[in-house]
Amino acid sequence: MLPSTLEAVLYAVIVIAGWTFCTWIYNVFFHPLARFPGPKLAGMTQFWKGWRYLIAQDHIPKLFELHKQYGNVVRVGPNELHFSDPAAYGELYHPNRRWKKDPTLYESMTEGAGSWNLLDYPSAKKRREVLLSHFSRKSILDLQHVVQEHMDILCDVFTDHINTTGKSVDLTHAMKCFSIDTITSVCFAKPINATWSPDFKSPMVLAMDRALIILESMVYFRWLRWVVSKLPPSVMLALTKNLEGYNEIRQAFSRQIESILADPSVLSSAPHPIIYHSLLTDGKAYSGKTSITGSMSFNDLSEEAFILVFAGTDTSSNTITTGAIHCVENKDVYQTLKEELRGAWPNLAERPSYEMLEKLPYLTAVIKESLRLSHGVVSPPARIVPMGGAVVSGYAIPEGTIVGMSSCFVHYNESIFPEARTFKPERWLGPQAKDLEPYLVAFSKGSRNCVGMNLGYCELYIAFANLFRRYDLEFDGVSTADLKWVDMYVPLHVGPDMRVFARPVSS
Ligand code: HEM
Ligand SMILES: *[C@@H]1O[C@H](CO)[C@@H](O)[C@H](O)[C@H]1NC(C)=O
Ligand SMILES: *[C@@H]1O[C@H](CO)[C@@H](O)[C@H](O)[C@H]1NC(C)=O
Ligand SMILES: *[C@@H]1O[C@H](CO)[C@@H](O)[C@H](O)[C@H]1NC(C)=O
Questions:
Q1: Residues within a 6 A CB radius of ligand 4
Q2: pLDDT at position 79 over 60
Q3: What is the pTM of this model?
Q4: pLDDT-derived band of residue 379, with 50, 70 and 90 as boundaries?
Q5: Is 450 annotated as a binding residue?
Q6: Which of 282, 303, 436, 494 could bond 114 through an S-S bridge, CB–CB 3.0 to 4.6 Å?
């Protein structure tokens, strides 16, 4: 009676449904991780986690709930465990434990081999060495004027804005613009000039927020990635009108790479060392040499450029905005910070150096506390237990298991940071403060920690010093209670933007 194709489809559906059902049964009762506690649904299918990220958007609060119920280790996916003891963080991300990154997260939205998505340590190590020398402390000290120049541009816009309109500024987006202009300047000597966008609503910055949600979706729907990669660019553009800025910047980077590959001598006209001096001259630091050794493909270069912009924008700007808002709200912190800065930087016209700012104890405490409460990356950086298995936090974990721990569980731990949810720079001062250092994990730890840490710190010092020395800051209708975020790998802010009145001080 049934046409044979329909019959075939029917059988296929039955087979797939049966197979899925058997997988669930296997996962819950017979999987090597079946002995670990956690929600049954999470053990059954990875869509439990997908649901938490994309639909319920309560991933981190849910993890806190689960650890309260089940203890230090929770099975959060068929093949995945999450830990909560701060000591476990040090074990998972130990410099000697060079575990592979989990491809479902790190390859979810990438087109070439970049430092962030090179999965195994030996291949990542080579790239990291080149970048680490490019972003070394010494290089950043030499490039600090670039950071200060972008801060000055931002301050000009702030001052002009209050003078002409009398209104508040959107600090959330302003800092994103500052970070993206700084990173594109430092890496490519080509700032995208986001800071000049009306009300700081740069199309690129807006597109990056949307891209985060797409990245998280691709983790669960890998076929989506395949579909997207097959679409002609024109269709892509029409479908994703809101990713306009994203495509634009990707193309701008590609054009720069093309022009350098076509004529390496253009490198010598750059005003300061850019990443291609390091990436294209076999890891040698800038020396005017421009021999192209070609160990990286065009796609790899373009991917690396993109990763640096992504990794260096939301992370820094989120730390500045979060920290600044807490300083504005807490009058004691605000006054202490301003006094320290006024003392160390008496003449407004003479910009202090980064080295000098670094030595200021209260500013340093404010920056550490800002990093603690903004977390860097909030998703658990997923790693794969190598052959032979491993012991983590006293548990024997089978090989191939995905393990991770969100930095929030270190930063919010009450035994390490009493009143953990409160902004208290004082905790970083005094003799016991040294003991807290290992628990500041905003840049992560170990073999895959942040390669841009020196630049990150430089941006933080220059931003906090300039904002609080050059302006009187006051809230406009918001407070720290409005600082709400969801886990989209980095914290994606879902509350209202942080608006402040920024009134320039006269001296
Ligand atoms: C306050 C600023 C920053 C914070 C809090 C931060 C935080 C982090 C964290 C937590 C990771 C580890 C992510 C993971 O394992 O999944 C990371 C990796 C990375 N960061 Fe940063 N970052 C900051 C600024 C920057 C800047 C300015 C750059 C660019 C120069 C940068 C480039 C990178 C790269 C390339 C990686 C990947 C390293 C690897 O996988 O081996 N970051 N960052
Ligand atoms: C802004 O206004 C203040 C005082 O009203 C003035 O001193 C300052 O020069 C003005 N700045 C700019 C950039 O217009
Ligand atoms: C940014 O501004 C600078 C200086 O005005 C200019 O040279 C550069 O072309 C601008 N970049 C872009 C991407 O518009
Ligand atoms: C906080 O850290 C301590 C050890 O430093 C640990 O015993 C405790 O379980 C942690 N608290 C939570 C809620 O994970």
A1: 84-86, 413, 415-416
A2: yes
A3: 0.94
A4: very high
A5: yes
A6: 303
